[in-house]
Amino acid sequence: MGQAEPRTVVAMAGPTAVGKTEVAIALARRRPISIISIDSAMVYRGMDIGTAKPNAALLESYPHALVDIRDPLETYSAAEFLRDADAAVRQAWQLGRLPVLVGGTMLYLRTFREGLAAMPGANVEVRRKLNAQAAATGWNALYERLCKIDPVAAAKIHPNNHSRLQRALEVYELSGRPISQFWAGGSGTDAGNRLGAKLLSLAIEPDDRAVLHGRIEQRYDAMLEAGFLAEVAGLRDRGDLDLSLPALRAVGYRQAWEHLDGSVDADGMRRRTLAATRQLAKRQLTWLRGWPWMKRLTWGEPAQLAAEIEHQLT
């Protein structure tokens, strides 16, 4: 008997506002798939408009795994994502469906493909200590500390990515080893062969950066019209959330929170949000273009891209 062909997983990534969800829905209309979100902001309940989360009707028709699985007060790590994504993939196979991972959190995609090195888990006390230090001296001081402790990791972590910065310092405090050593050590996973599957990784990329920036602007204005500020006001009114939490570091939420605090006017909020979103898209494209194993798809009509993806599967 010949060896059975490995089952397939599709991973579809791209910069923010490129239309990944629309393409996934178009693919779902062509064949039975299970959509699995790889978006670190969509995991949070009550953060809907600002994360461009599919609306309730769309989610009912085309369910997305790993959406609305955490309260904004909670954290969600790459290790938790890997565990949950593995379970969602296995469930899709059991249902006879094609698992399709969709989103723009590149750390999650890399984690799914390569696995995680065995490093210390999250530690509440260490994180509280680091947050207190950041409040006292500023995050820049913590970033400078990381530059001395682990220049390799510092080169890969943006100074404003407080969640990753905190994690790198946490790992060093708990293990005495730079996090980059864990990264270099690998996980023993056969890259691109997660769960014994064939992983088809697709990057939807714009052919015109200016057009992408226009889409970003149009989408943000549509979010404001849809009630984004009211959504953030509702989060603030809970009384137990603050800007130190990973959930509230999502692009757009911090800027809206600061506007509602009165520290920036509406025009300033819009300018800051658009600038931060453009920077996010730039970072996402940098990740994607550094991965030679990604197959490139130039964006276009969702139905056309879905047909192209199906062709890749044959």
Mean pLDDT: 91
Strand content bin: 5-15%
CATH fold node name of the largest domain: Rossmann fold
Low-confidence stretches: 187-191
What topology, given as strand order, has the largest sheet? Answer: 3-2-4-1-5-6
- What is the domain tally? 2
Bin the helical content: 40-55%
- Note the run of SSEs as H and E: EHEHEHEHHHHHHEHHHHEH
What kind of sheet is the major sheet? 6 strands, parallel
Derived from helix and strand composition plus strand pairing, the structural class reads alpha/beta
CATH class of the largest domain: Alpha Beta
Question: Could you give a quick summary of the protein structure above?
Answer:
This protein has 314 residues and is an alpha/beta fold.
Describe the structure.
With 314 residues, the protein is α/β, with parallel strands linked by helices. It folds into two domains: 8-116 and 187-313, Rossmann fold (3-Layer(aba) Sandwich), CATH 3.40.50.300; 124-185, Histone, subunit A, CATH 1.10.20. Helices cover 53% and strands 10% of the residues. The chain has a six-stranded parallel sheet, with helices on both faces. The two termini are 23 Å apart. Residues 187-191 have low confidence and may be disordered.
What labels would you give this structure?
about 325 residues, alpha/beta, Rossmann fold, Histone, subunit A, 6-stranded parallel beta sheet, 14 helices, about 55% helix, about 10% strand
Topology record:
Blueprint: E1 8-13, H1 20-28, E2 33-37, H2 56-61, E3 64-65, H3 78-94, E4 98-103, H4 106-114, H5 124-137, H6 139-149, H7 151-156, H8 162-175, H9 179-185, E5 198-205, H10 209-225, H11 228-237, H12 253-261, H13 266-289, E6 295-298, H14 302-313
Parallel strand pairs: 1-4, 1-5, 2-3, 2-4, 5-6
Helix pairs in contact: 1-14, 3-4, 5-6, 5-8, 6-8, 10-13, 11-12, 12-13
